[in-house]
Design brief:
Layout: E1 5-7, E2 13-16, E3 21-22, E4 29-30, H1 34-49, H2 63-70, H3 77-84, E5 90-91, H4 92-101
Antiparallel strand pairs: 1-2, 2-3, 4-5
Helix pairs in contact: 1-3
């Protein structure tokens, strides 16, 4: 399924063009321009870089397979997938929780 999204000049997610509907923003959410979405992914990459080489993600692994193998903090998976595959915004609380779990 293909998705098309429209952002305003400030990078705020405005419309889901596939369904022709306006998308409401969550209160306290951070705007989802690519730079902000990549903040979550960058936190994950930085965390991975500090892992022992044997515990780093293998190219063929999904995040679920990887975290199951290394017994990683599975609580971060829904947020990572929401940002990575859903193109959705995240709240300051979610960002704080991600940082907490990746310590």
């Amino acid at each position: 399924m293909m998705a098309l999204f429209l952002f305003d000049r400030k990078g705020v997610f405005v419309w889901n063009l596939l369904n022709f509907q306006k998308v409401p923003r969550e209160e306290g959410s951070i705007t989802p321009p690519e730079v902000k979405l990549n903040e979550i992914r960058q936190l994950m990459r930085d965390w991975e870089a500090h892992l022992n080489i044997l515990n780093r993600k293998k190219n063929h692994e999904t995040i679920q397979e990887w975290f199951r193998r290394i017994k990683g903090p599975t609580e971060v998976i829904p947020l990572y997938e929401k940002v990575r595959y859903g193109g959705k915004s995240f709240t300051n609380k979610e960002l704080h929780l991600l940082k907490k779990f990746l310590r």
